[in-house]
Design goal:
Blueprint: H1 3-28, E1 37-45, E2 52-59, E3 67-73, E4 87-90, E5 106-112, E6 115-121, E7 125-129, E8 132-133, E9 136-143
Parallel strand pairs: 6-9
Antiparallel strand pairs: 1-2, 2-3, 3-4, 4-7, 5-6, 8-9
Length: 150
């Protein structure tokens, strides 16, 4: 076999090995595969039982800090490994006091069957506060920062 033909066979074999590895990796990944993890901190049912609020800490690894998040879910709906659909905030590099999960302290309160108040430290950096989700009015309000540790 000529050296040119041997080189062509080697390059083709290497390409097939790399392509096979890429296909295997693509098939092994699931649509929700991520480096983030949610840890539930608190759950509150609505007064009429139609919804529940779930407060959780989201940790996406060493390159990002912890965040406190809130999702509005139906009673039997489970919390997915996704960001909060109602509220997301972090401590803004320690400016706000943190809860046991590492994100800023959050206090949830149903103020009616279709109305929610989410209280957070005035120093927290808020990334999401949906005014309405699934027909539920959501108000994000600044609480006091007197419990700050810094």
């Amino acid at each position: 076999m000529s050296s040119r033909r041997a080189l062509a066979v080697s390059v083709t074999a290497l390409a097939l090995i790399l392509a096979g590895g890429w296909v295997a990796l693509a098939l092994a990944r699931t649509p929700d595969d991520t480096t983030c993890a949610n840890t539930v901190l608190e759950q509150l049912r609505s007064p009429d039982g139609a919804f529940r609020l779930v407060a959780f800490t989201r940790n996406c690894g060493a390159t990002s800090g912890f965040s406190s998040q809130v999702s509005l879910l139906e009673p039997r709906e489970s919390l997915q490994n996704e960001p909060g659909n109602a509220f997301i905030a972090d401590t803004d590099h320690g400016a706000a006091a943190s809860d046991p999960g590492g994100g800023p302290k959050v206090r949830m309160l149903w103020v009616g069957p279709r109305a929610v108040s989410i209280e957070h430290d005035v120093s927290a950096r808020v990334f999401r506060c949906e005014p309405r989700f699934q027909g539920v009015e959501i108000k994000c309000v600044h609480g006091s920062n007197e419990e700050r540790t810094r």
